[in-house]
Amino acid sequence: MSLAGHLIEARNRFLICLAAIVIGMVIAYFLTDPFMDLITRPVREIAAARGEENKVEVMYTTITGAFDLKLRMSFAIGLLLAAPVWIWQIWAFIMPGLSRKEIRYSVGFAAAAIPLFFAGVTTGLLVMPNIVKLMAEFVPEGTSAFYDARTYYDFALKLMLIVGVAYVLPVFLVALNLAGVMSGKAIMKSWRIAVVVAVTVAAIATPPSDIVSTLLLTGILIVLFLAAATLSMLFDRRRAKREQATLVESGLVEDGSPA
Predict the structure, then answer these.
(1) 258 within domain boundaries
(2) Domains: count for the chain
(3) 255 in a domain, yes or no?
(4) How far, rounded to the nearest angstrom, does the alpha carbon of residue 212 sit from its chain's CA centroid?
(5) 82 and 200: one domain?
């Protein structure tokens, strides 16, 4: 295909992606209220527990605040709903240039990364109420706690994204191993760095005073790292056996002798 043909194809696929995102935003617009109701439930529970329904609540500080937040949420949720379409369009554009082996690895990477990302997002959503309730305990008696809706939404979204991305990082380690960039032993030897990173991410995603949530998230991230390192070592062993068999078949080494 000529350069002009590639540009035309890229334009057409971009328009398809754009149309899918717009449709996703329209659908997401009607999902923003249930989503906002879900993430603000801890605030209502705090208000009910303290008996101060009018002193603990999420508020909009500008006239257009509610509408602006709906648009932001519609874009984020719509982008997620349209993900199968725009991911496929990007994939279909670059797929002709990939070898069969690269395509197989890419499909495996996506099959592992997508569920892990959503598992991380779910974990962040489950951890968030504990964080909100814990922080509310520092509000002195006789004072009010009003949360800006936009800031509250940003906090919830960033928390879910941070944990979601953290869950996907081990998959990148396996991808680097398959690409020959890092061996399984090298990944395993970096366990100290992995522990530091896991503790740092968990500390960012959870308040320092919530030790249980921090330790739980740290443990999950370390287990995922160990799983990635172990899987990479298994891949290395299988790769070494395959290379040994190739050398035996070519007559360069005898069967059973080290390569």
Answers:
(1) no
(2) 2
(3) no
(4) 22
(5) no
Query: Do 106 and 211 reside in the same domain of the chain?
Result: yes
CB 214 within 8 A of CB 203: yes
Domain containing 118 equals 99-248
What pLDDT was estimated at residue 256? 53
> How does pLDDT run across 184-229, given as a tens digit for each residue?
888 888 888 888 888 888 877 776 666 777 888 888 889 988 988 8
Q: What percent of the chain has pLDDT over 70?
A: 87
Torsion sign over Cα 65, 71, 74, 79: negative
Q: Which of 71-75, 98-102, 162-166, 176-180 has the lowest mean pLDDT?
A: 98-102
End-of-domain residue from the set 68, 97, 126: 97
Domain co-membership, 128 together with 162: yes
Q: Could you please report the per-residue DSSP string of the chain?
A: --HHHHHHHHHHHHHHHHHHHHHHHHHHHTTHHHHHHHHTHHHHHHHHHHT-TTTEEEE--STTHHHHHHHHHHHHHHHHHTHHHHHHHHHHHHGGGS-HHHHHHHHHHHHHHHHHHHHHHHHHHHHHHHHHHHHHTTSPTT--EEEEHHHHHHHHHHHHHHHHHHHHHHHHHHHHHHTTSS-HHHHHHTHHHHHHHHHHHHHHHS-TT-HHHHHHHHHHHHHHHHHHHHHHHHHHHHHHHHHHHHHHHHTSS-TTS--
Q: Are residues 165 and 81 in the same domain?
A: no
Beta bridge partners of 59: 148
Give residue-wise pLDDT tens across range 42-85: 888 888 877 766 667 888 888 888 899 999 999 988 888 888 88
Residue 177 belongs to some domain of the structure: yes
